[in-house]
Design brief:
Length: 99
């Protein structure tokens, strides 16, 4: 799921953001006249551009929330050192009582 999300952002959303941004530019009509026709006009390009922006912001917000849920200090430590700290396993008191 994570690879699909990153792949979607990298290979679908970001190129779509660039293409729709170019289609909205009036000066690109002389360079790439087919771009507006391909996207259905300048207004459709604006709508797609805005939708992609909302999806990118949502991706970013979810990413930040996941970091905060996992603990930002531990996440930063794992990024820098490569080690992720977990809690030690709980001791079982029943084994000590029966001995």
């Amino acid at each position: 799921l994570q690879k699909m999300a990153y792949g979607g952002v990298l290979f679908v959303l970001l190129p779509l953001m660039i293409i729709t941004g170019l289609a909205m530019s009036p000066s690109m009509n002389s360079v790439l006249p087919f771009l507006n026709d391909l996207l259905g006009g300048r207004q459709t390009a604006r709508t797609i551009h805005f939708t992609v922006m909302v999806l990118l912001v949502a991706f970013f917000v979810v990413h930040i929330l996941m970091i905060l849920a996992a603990g930002p200090i531990n996440e930063l430590r794992s990024i820098i050192t490569g080690w992720y700290r977990t809690d030690p396993p709980a001791q079982d008191d029943t084994a000590e009582r029966s001995a």
